[in-house]
Design goal:
CATH class of chain B: Alpha Beta
Shape of chain B: globular
Helix content of chain B: 10-25%
CATH superfamily of chain B: Beta-grasp domain
Mean pLDDT of chain C: 96
Oligomer: heterotrimer
CATH class of the largest domain in chain C: Alpha Beta
Distance between the termini of chain B: 32 Å
Number of strands of chain C: 33
Low-confidence stretches of chain B: none
Mean pLDDT of chain B: 92
Strand order of the largest sheet of chain C: 3-7-1-17-14-15-16
CATH topology of chain B: Ubiquitin-like (UB roll)
Radius of gyration of chain B: 12 Å
CATH architecture of the largest domain in chain C: Alpha-Beta Complex
Number of helices of chain B: 3
Low-confidence stretches of chain C: none
Radius of gyration of chain C: 27 Å
Strand content of chain C: 25-35%
CATH superfamily of the largest domain in chain C: Aldehyde oxidase/xanthine dehydrogenase, a/b hammerhead
Number of strands of chain B: 7
Structural class of chain C: alpha+beta
CATH topology of the largest domain in chain C: Aldehyde Oxidoreductase, domain 3
Largest sheet of chain B: 3 strands, antiparallel
């Protein structure tokens, strides 16, 4: 048996403890150990962004983060985005703007978009495309995703007034 | 009117189309074979249209195999079968 | 365009409701294949060939079997002996010996990445460690990965039991060319004699991958009662069942396929890879076995679309009428026969009225993964060639390229080169919409910039679909359909059902059934799902409506024929019940109402599109930037316009990637050298602009709402449109895909002007 390491962290606002092997990625622990399968694996080498989560507020490819590294960190995954019975405005706008087809890349896009809008509430189209360039989508051609993020910015601005 | 694929014209003496009696593809294929022996071996496998081939009747790909109905003025073509992505 | 009055007659069709599976997909709750969790699940991995072509002399698995944590190992020895039996898989037929040898190599490996052995272990890490303990003794053979090399007489022969077939006629000598297709129309010599201008060019395209973000994944449980359940990511649960059962040589009734949510397919998730292997491992270890491919496995072991060599010659009179066309196409099939040369040959001239034509097409084996369908399979390569030559002809004739296309466009009554005559089709309408578009009317200014246009065509196929529906007593309906939903078809099918029944889209709860829960349904592919499964849903709605009238007649003590349906409500004289009110009374009028329909429709029709693109070419680096892009397509009738636009945009961007970046790069030893997303380099959000869309609606007479399939056509035109734009910008005719900076730079530097 490989000896496991104890890790204490916060995921979606809740304290979580887990045991992991040194070789396990955060993505593997989220999906396999903790059952948080909303973060997807498309490449396991940081190329596709389907596993994007927020680590202390920054978007990261969770497949490139070792699970042992998240001791004491604050992690937000797609499962932590909606509050109560309502979808987050980004989630709602992705639905209203038909910004997903197969949906496998969607959680990663939504997390990357959230990181952007948290930092820049009114991004230009270029800024959105730049931010999302680390997330691959093969279905939509990106157009409706960009519109959804633009609409999310407007809606979130409206809610913050 | 039954159109003969160019690759079968070695059997038909260059005949490229002809009127044949038949209410369905089975009867058409029998009539073809009677007229040009050897065609059925290319067209039919067991009781079905050969793998990789399809029949177009009046512009639509036939969905009932050898039972597909053929009208008196129908136009029949034999084509490579296609699928899609 | 649809007149407003016609639009008005629909309440649901043409609106944009939120998809029924939407909340699950934006919250991460939707269960894709890799998300499946079962008690006792173990993990399988596949050992793949490091060689492009080799004899497998022996496989020694003894050390792997002894490795702690390993539960089962399988090789070719565990596969049933499959004869050269041809199995009908609905969408097409397949030689089982070939399919089986692709799933686990038999006497030879035929491409780098070819599966050789598999094992299951307690976790994926242990499985990977143990793979290294399997010893395979290979005798390396010469390999070939370029289609023209593979056609030579002295090329390495992949199979000694493959003979060229020409429409059923079999050659006597084994060959790397399984299929030769030949079409003739009119008299080609006469045709070219009548031409005032003739353009002939040769084209090459590289293999590209479908690129779906979700890797292939399957979980199988061979239960102790002998029943096999497979949870998988597939475009067709029933075809996955048929392939799995045939490969394992067990009855289909012994296999249940549960289609999980699918993370993209584009034609690449029709053939099985993992399903039978996971089942064999499960039989050995008695536990559910999950297998997930790595991204490298996906590139190296699953279906690219063919690389091709093409020669296209077209002639026209000086007044701009096409008179003759000739095409010679060779597409690679990869390691096993059955590439997509058939549709390629049928599509090469499908946009034009050509009185005289000749087409030769060759399916060619080489040491690449078995090619699979990719969105309009075979059509994109052919359109790249044809539409580039069309552009050059128009230039030589000094005719606007759009007008030249309009003058020669295929329309109702045009006889295709492969024989059949088109019914009502919408190519002319897409060209007219292009002509009237803001994009075409805009002025493109600036150096190194150019505008291109191209049209594209793809068939719609019909095949078989089943739908069932249960009326709930609150007036909603549960709809169970057999088509896996890759991009919103649950909703586009439910909308047609709702329209016919006169209820809202939200009152329908669509579900994709497993192979034991719904009638046989063919793959989600061939641009058929919204057309054919939508047609089935319409027929189910009529079935339910008929039964609801009978129930109303019981309540009102009249004949069912006296019950009228108005706006979804049931009426007789002054009595009226809404669908929901009547649904609430089913319990005491005879019990539940269940509807069902199966269809196998003909006349699935034809999809045409025209694309416009503006590019800028960097004169120093030859990098091409897409400045503006407009996709125009005949959708017949857009059920959910956002989804139609989404198909057009997604297909266009896949086509942009094919045009500018994507390719399988092979080493001299036949190994793919760029098997990662980073090196393969699909378009990102930053690489493309907004994709403007114009939906044209020329209703399909063979569908009650006029639907034409829209999924595939959008990928066909982009490479040609971009090549034509690059020519306008640089004066260089690009005849090779991808038109990546190194290739374009070389062409620009040698001043390869036409």
């Amino acid at each position: 048996m490989v000896r496991k390491t104890h890790v204490a962290t916060t995921i979606n606002g809740e304290p979580v403890e887990f045991l992991c092997e040194a070789r396990q990625s955060l993505l593997e622990v989220l999906r396999e150990t903790l059952g948080l399968t909303g973060s997807k694996e498309g490449c396991n080498n940081g190329n596709c962004g389907a596993c994007t989560v927020l680590l202390d507020g920054q978007p990261v490819d969770s497949c490139l983060v070792l699970a042992v590294e998240v001791e004491g960190a604050q992690i937000t995954t797609i499962e932590g985005l909606s509050k109560d019975s309502r979808l987050h405005p980004i989630q709602q706008c992705f639905l209203e703007d038909a910004a997903l087809q197969c949906g496998i890349c969607t959680p990663g896009f939504i997390m990357s978009a959230k990181a952007l809008l948290d930092r820049d509430p009114n991004p230009s189209e270029h800024a959105i495309r730049f931010q999302l360039a680390g997330n691959l989508c093969r279905c939509t051609g990106y157009d409706k995703i960009i519109r959804a993020v633009q609409d999310s910015a407007k809606r979130m601005a409206g809610q913050n007034k | 009117m039954v159109y003969i694929p160019s690759q079968w014209r070695d059997l038909t003496g260059a005949v490229d189309r002809l009127e044949l009696p038949g209410r369905n593809l089975r009867e058409i294929s029998r009539a073809l074979e009677a007229r040009f022996p050897g065609i059925a071996e290319r067209l039919v496998e067991g009781d079905a249209i050969a793998a990789g081939l399809a029949a177009s009747i009046d512009g639509a790909i036939a969905s009932r195999g050898m039972y597909s109905p053929v009208g008196p003025t129908s136009e029949v073509h034999f084509l490579p079968a296609i699928g899609g992505g | 365009m649809t007149p407003k009055s016609e639009r008005k007659k629909y309440k649901v069709i043409g609106t944009r409701p939120i998809r029924h599976d939407g909340a699950d997909k934006v919250t991460g709750r939707a269960v894709y294949g890799a998300d499946l969790r079962l008690a006792g699940i173990v993990h399988g991995k596949i050992l793949r060939s490091p060689h492009a072509h080799a004899k497998v002399k022996s496989i020694d698995t003894s050390a792997a079997e002894k490795h702690p944590g390993v539960l089962a190992v399988v090789t070719r020895a565990d596969m049933p002996n499959l004869k050269n039996k041809i199995a009908d898989l609905g969408e097409g037929s397949v030689n089982l010996a070939h399919l089986g040898a692709n799933v686990l190599a038999h006497d030879k490996v035929l491409y780098k990445g070819h599966a050789v052995a598999a094992l299951a272990a307690v976790n994926p890490h242990v499985a990977e460690e143990a793979l290294k303990l399997i010893k395979v003794d290979y005798e390396v053979l010469p390999s070939v990965t370029w289609v023209m090399d593979a056609m030579q007489d002295d090329a390495p022969l992949l199979h000694n039991d493959v003979f060229t077939k020409s429409m059923g006629k079999r050659a006597s000598k084994p060959s790397n060319v399984p299929t030769h297709i030949h079409f003739e129309k009119g008299n080609i010599e006469e045709g070219f004699q009548a031409a005032d201008v003739i353009v002939e060019r040769e084209f090459k395209t590289a293999s590209v991958h479908q690129g779906y973000i979700e890797p292939h994944v399957s979980t199988a449980l061979w239960n102790q009662d002998g029943h096999v359940t497979v949870w998988t990511s597939t475009q067709g649960a029933f075809t996955a069942r048929a392939q799995t059962a045939e490969l394992l040589q067990i009855p289909v009734s012994q296999v249940t396929v549960v289609p999980c949510e699918i993370g993209g397919g584009f034609g690449g998730k029709i053939a099985v890879y993992l399903e039978p292997v996971a089942a064999l491992l499960s039989r050995k270890c008695g536990r559910p076995v999950k297998m997930v491919m790595t991204r490298e496995d996906v590139f190296e072991g699953t279906g690219p679309t063919p690389g091709s060599f093409m020669r296209v010659k077209l002639g026209a009179t000086k007044d701009g009428k096409l008179v003759a066309g000739e095409a010679w196409l060779a597409y690679d099939a990869g390691a096993f026969p059955g590439g997509v040369i058939g549709p390629g040959a049928m599509c090469v001239f499908s946009c034009y009225e050509l009185p005289h034509a000749k087409v030769d097409g060759y399916d060619v084996l080489d040491n690449k993964p078995k090619t699979q369908a990719y969105r309009a399979p075979g059509a994109t390569q052919a359109a790249f060639a044809c539409e580039t030559v069309i552009d050059e002809l128009a230039e030589k004739l000094k005719i606007d390229p759009l007008e030249f296309r309009l003058k020669n466009a295929a329309k109702e009554g045009t006889r295709r080169v492969d024989g059949p005559v088109y019914p009502r089709v919408g190519l002319v309408e897409t060209l007219e919409a292009a002509k009237n578009s803001p994009h075409w009317k805009s002025k493109l200014e600036g150096k190194h910039r150019g505008r291109g246009i191209a049209s594209g065509y793809w068939f719609n196929i019909g095949l078989k679909s089943s739908v069932a529906a249960n009326v709930n007593n609150d007036g909603t309906v549960s709809l169970i359909e057999g088509s896996t939903d890759i991009g919103g078809t649950r909703t586009s099918i439910a909308m047609q059902f709702a329209e016919t029944l006169g209820i809202t889209a939200e009152a329908v709860h669509p579900r994709v059934g497993d192979t034991d829960s719904v009638g046989y349904t063919d793959v989600t592919g061939g641009s058929r799902t919204t057309f054919a499964t939508g047609l089935a849903a319409h027929e189910v709605a009529l079935d339910i409506q008929r039964q609801m009238r009978e129930r109303a007649a019981i309540l009102w003590e009249c004949e069912a024929s006296q019950v009228q349906v108005e706006d979804g409500a049931y009426c007789h004289k002054d009595k009226k019940l809404t669908f929901a009110e009547l649904a609430g009374q089913l319990g005491h009028t005879g019990g539940p109402v269940v509807g069902r329909a199966t269809v196998s429709p003909e006349g699935a029709s034809n999809g045409f599109g025209t694309h416009l693109v503006d590019v800028e070419v960097d004169p120093d680096t030859a990098k091409v930037t897409i400045l503006r892009y407009t996709a125009i397509q005949d959708a017949g009738r857009a059920i959910h316009p956002s989804y139609v636009e989404g198909q057009m945009q997604g297909g266009a961007v896949q086509g942009i990637g094919w045009a500018l970046n994507e390719e399988y790069v092979y080493s001299d030893q036949g190994r793919m050298e760029n098997a990662s997303y980073l090196d393969y380099r699909m378009p990102t959000a930053l690489d493309v602009p907004a994709i403007e869309t114009i939906i044209v609606e020329v209703p399909n007479p063979a569908h009650p709402y006029g639907v034409r399939g829209v999924g595939e056509t959008p990928i066909v035109a982009p490479p040609a449109a971009i090549a034509n734009a690059i020519y306008a910008a640089t004066g260089v005719r690009m005849t090779e895909l991808p038109m990546s900076p190194p290739r374009l730079w070389a062409a620009m530097s040698t001043g390869k002007k036409s």
